[in-house]
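Note on ligand handling. Small-molecule inputs were canonicalized before submission; formal charges were left as drawn, and no protonation-state enumeration was performed. Where a ligand contained multiple stereocentres, the stereochemistry in the source SMILES was retained. For fe (ii) ion, this procedure yielded the string shown in the input block below.
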Amino acid sequence: MSANNEVVINPNSRECVRVIQLTDTHIFAENAGKLLGLNTRQSFEAVLERMLKEEIAPDFVLATGDLSQDASVESYQYLVEKLQAFNVPCFWIPGNHDHPDTMAQVLNYGVVSPERIIIADHWQVVLLDSSVPGKVYGHISTPQLQQLQQRVEQNQQRHSLVVMHHQPVNVGSDWLDNLGIKNAEELFAAVKNNDRETCFLWGHVHQDFVGKQAGVQLISTPSTCVQFKPSSNEFSAGDEAPGYRYLSLYPDGHVESVLHRVKDIPFTVDYSIKGY
Ligand SMILES: [Fe+2]
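Structure output:
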């Protein structure tokens, strides 16, 4: 299957579509790989264990970039094996630390696949690649913006969940706000003729953020490993626990989202490091 194919999901319940978002796993080739002093495989496995215990399993999973720290084949092989535990489709997009071509080769097995359009009852989910080779900031290409606009305008019977790695709005940290989507105004313009609800969902900022701008619901999700300190003007690790988000997409366009953090596992983060 190519990334342009649509995937139709039949939700388990007529009540809503259920989605798990995990993001910024930053897995290394080596088992012992640490980001800011934290072993990213260990924290991912603790979060995965918690996700698999959800009372109601999701209809599908979204892995929203920076899945690897070193873009190694081994890191993606590790992830593709671990994600099989879900037993539901898992879709992914690259982040600034990833290598999209390597991902496309490895993250395409079993429940994990590279499709970017998911159709689910009253919702369409559009996954965008906001990564720019060699850069930490994000940008959405013109073809992707055109496709998004077309989908929104031609599918007025469905609400839209638009998923990306980088943030399309400022989150209140100078250093991070310089590393968001550079053409975010074009992204907002692409969805402005939507009679239904639109929600933007992303990772990258390693922190919880919810808001609304120009009628669009805005949600970011913490990393499964180390967090960034909210409202900090310079790079700084946060002390919040690793986490993930569980979203329920209702037929009326309402999005219910619950942030879960794994607090009962001891983590050691090196707060003295000033960069990542
Ligand atoms: Fe990240």
